[in-house]
Every structure is written in structure tokens, then in C-alpha cells.
Amino acid sequence: MSGPIGVGVIGAGVISDTYLENLASFPDVTVVIVGDLIEERAKSQAEKHGVPAWGSAADVFANDDVQVVVNLTIPAAHLEISSAAIAAGKHVWSEKPLGLDRAGGRQLLADATAKGLRVGSAPDTILGPGFQTAKRAIQEGVIGEPMFATTTFQTVGPDLWHPSPAFLFAQGAGPLLDMGPYYFSGLVSLFGPVERVAALGRKKAEERVIHSGPDAGTTFPVEVPTSLQVLTSFAAGQQASSLLSFDSALERHGIFEVHGTEGSLVIPDPNQFEGRSAFVTARTSLADGDWGEQQWTEVEQKGMVVGRGLGLLDMIRAIAEDRPHVATGELGFHVLDVMLSAQESAASGEFVRVESSISAPVPSVPVDFDPFAATL
Predict the structure, then answer these.
(1) Rounded Cα gap, residues 71 and 57, in angstroms
(2) What gap in Å lies between CA 344 and CA 150, rounded to an integer?
(3) Which CATH superfamily is domain 5-121 in?
(4) CA distances (Å), 195 to each of 109, 235, 244, in order?
(5) Per CATH, the architecture of 126-299 is what?
(6) What does UniProt give as the signal peptide span (predicted)?
(7) By C-alpha distance, which of 226, 127, 135 is closest to 175?
(8) pLDDT digit string, tens, across residues 15-56
(9) pLDDT higher than threshold 70 for residue 358
């Protein structure tokens, strides 16, 4: 690879705006075509963002200038599109989740390996300076040895604001597969692979009501648990508890805490690229009833803030530099396996062993990583 790398985007939905805006700012990347099932929508996005070509997914695969496909389709189509990209000889970056079933995910990774191609998988928020600052603080020992973590995402539900929310309550979604990738990717990046999962899940109702848009007042079925509590046990010995809910009147997003032998650290929202990191150390004495206010130590955030597309850029540079990239398909598959195991545990009431793993620790991002430099 030398010079800007040609990228083709498949999927011209809402999230494509963020990707196309950010990718246009990276000198190492050139978006050459946008494809979509609805070609008129691909044309509209291409013209809006100054992309010279548009068409179908097949047009993206056939374009000789495309070296990497960015898969922004709906989750149910992720494996189909990513597999077709690999078959066409293209590296692929996929939005989360990597797919919806284990067999398809394994086959995708095997096919990519056989062809010497890379797979990357969102979320790439774990590459942002917010999360990376917290990760460095843990590695530097500010809280001692990490022991356990707590994460929380709870909201009243996207049916309150989304004009077409049914897909978020269908198989392959719900709070677990929709929001879980952010939290579990963060946990695995910090602690390594998960060995066992236990979960409890329930629904608030079998049907929900659309509250906004042209279909307001109509109902739709709920196919998956809308509140889940998940316990994860990691191979390195750490544990975590995670709450994911579309049923909560109390809104609490992005809570991510890591507790160690010497202190506790709060980490930025894993759905964001920046945010506050701070820690408290364990008290050495405490009078009965004198809890008082704990003294927080702020951790200075370091690194450039960008947004979605950062993981793709890292993958492109990693290919050129012959090094591992951060948000690998292997990581995305392991996180998918963890979430599917949580679903199975919630249904069975038993611990489920996670069969997949990751072959190496998730790499960190150098503080001086500059997305706006021309490196190829």
C-alpha cells in the first residue's frame, strides 16, 4: 500500500454521514464509491460528500480502485456483505456487530485469513483518546491490579424517539446486541478474553408503542429481552457486571468503572471517543459513619479526538506497516460470542462457556497517533 487507499462504502443510511465526513479528513484514505440497495440514496450521499461514483454493492465490489470495503448495512446483512467483500479480494471494515451468528462469523474470519485479507469491526470508540487515556492509567498501575468492573446503560427505550424502532426490538438487536458491543469491547480490551457468562433477562411488555414520526401510536412486537444483567468471568481472573436496559425510567448512560486492589477508576462512555477519566485510591482509615467526600484524581486526556472511521484508518495503516490493528474481526467475533452466550444464559438460567478467544492482547493506540497526517 502506498498513497491514499481507495475505500468503498456500502450502506448509505444515517451513520454513513459521520463516516463519510471523517474519512474525507484523513489524507491516507480516499472514498471512491458509495453503494446501497437503493441506488438513488447512494447517489444522494455520494453527491453530498463529494464522492465521484455510486451504485449497488456489486458496483463497489467490482471497482478496481477499492481496496477496503466499509460495511454500514443493517446488522442482519453484515456477514453477507463482508463475506462478499472478502470473496472480491477486498479488506473489510464492518459496523457492529460483526454478524448475528457464530458459524457465519467463523467462516468470514477463516476466508479472510485464507486470502491474506484484514477484517475490522466496530466499535472503534475504544481507539478514542478517552478510552485510551483510561487504559494507559490502568496499565500504569494507578488502581493497582484490576479486580472487577461495573458497566451500565439504561434508558426508557428508543421507541420514545425513533420513528421506526421495531428493528431495535427484533432478533439480533435489543439493548444487548445494539449497545453491548461498546461495553464488552471495552472490557475485553482491558482484561482480555471472556471465559464464562451468566445473564438474566426480561421484557417490560410483549408489544411497544411508537411515540414519534408518521407511525406514532402504532404498536410493534418485542422479540428479545429488553433488560439484561450480565456477569462475565475473564480468563485473566477479573469479573464484570453489566446492566443493559430499554426499560428504565432513570436514564443512566455510559457508566464504566474499574475497581482494583489500590483504587477505582471511572472511564468515559464507551460509546464516545472522549470523556472524563478519574480515580480514587483506597482509604487508609475511616471513622465510623464518617464517609465524607472522596478525593478524585483527574487523568489528563491525551490524543486527537476524531470519531467513527478511526478504527478503519488504524487498520489501513496497520496493513501498510505489517502490524496488528486494534479493532480486529477476531475481537468483534469474540464480543459477538460473549453476547450470544449471554442470550443463551438468560434463556437457560445457567452459566455458558464462551468458546472463542482472542489470540493476543488488544493493542493500544500511541499517544502521538495523528489521523490527519499523510503516512502512506
Answers:
(1) 10
(2) 21
(3) NAD(P)-binding Rossmann-like Domain (3.40.50.720)
(4) 20, 5, 20
(5) 2-Layer Sandwich (3.30)
(6) none
(7) 226
(8) 999 999 999 999 999 999 999 999 999 999 999 999 999 999
(9) yes
